[in-house]
Amino acid sequence: MKTERSNVKLDTISFFNLASDRMHWLAARQKVLAENIANADTPNYRARDVTDFQSFLEKSDANRSAGGPLHETTVETVGGSGAWDSSLDGNDVALEQQSVMASENADQYRLAANLYRKAYQLLNAASGKE
Questions:
Q1: Alpha-carbon gap, residue 67 to 88, rounded angstroms
Q2: Which of 4, 108, 109, 115, by CA, is between 20 and 30 Å from 18?
Q3: What is this structure's pTM?
Q4: CB distance 48 to 116 below 8 Å
Q5: Dihedral of CA 87/93/95/101: which sign?
Q6: pLDDT tens for each residue of 65-113
Q7: C-beta atoms surrounding 89 within 10 Å
């Protein structure tokens, strides 16, 4: 016999907030890295990156505390950190470096998404929903 249970709001559980924020930040970072790669031949283009996850998380928590929408917090873009080389036209995008960073970023996104999915499955199993 199934018992009726109340619906759990996933955004009220801190793990789901953290995983969701991490995926939002990683998606924004992937976009910036892709822009860097796309501009590898643009004269005077400077590689960019996003602010660190901790800074994003602090702003996201402050936004939640103020009653703002969950993903209203934007990821800020900053100058890249130490490109491997610079070309004569002033472009400092190193394709190898950006490719490695994009690959690591994609791996981290997959990990966060898998953790989110597994936690959701565990929560459903514990509540009798499968």
A1: 49
A2: 4
A3: 0.76
A4: no
A5: positive
A6: 777 665 555 667 777 655 556 778 889 899 999 999 999 999 999 999 9
A7: 10
